[in-house]
Automatic annotation (TrEMBL):
The keyword Transmembrane applies. The chain crosses the membrane at residues 7-33, 68-90, 97-118, 138-157. GO terms for cellular component: plasma membrane. It comes from the Eukaryota. This is Epithelial membrane protein 1.
Amino acid sequence: MLVLLAGIFVVHIATVIMLFVSTIANVWMVGYYNTEKASSGLWLLCNGSCKQLPVATSDEASLKAVQAFMILSIIFSVIALVTFIVQLFTLEKGKRFYITGAVMLVCWLCILIGASIYTARFAQMSGFTTVHHGYCFILAWICFCFSFIISILYLVLRKK
């Protein structure tokens, strides 16, 4: 049981770290921008030097929503981690980690909404040629899978 708890804890910390990296780094899309290799993220466009991400007025609200949901996912993931540690020491034997699982499901939902909006609205950035998704986009979807698995494990896990 201790090994299972330790494993869940390590995967949860890895998920938090990957969420930080995927939200902060600017490598969601990689391609050529004005014949220079460039990458864009949720915040900046980098091609040699980084500058404000040029977004069409119609896509500005979508980008703000993606930014907000990714930040919310980090917040809920950290809250779930703290809740797990608190419940680990205060929960009676035989009880389940319902609160931690519920908070982690909210994190999962935030990642789903943020990454889905980005996928739908920003699959083809204007001004970019030969575009492909960067590692931050892939990390976001990996965190989506991990957070769902962790939340289900928290919901079925009993304190022994």
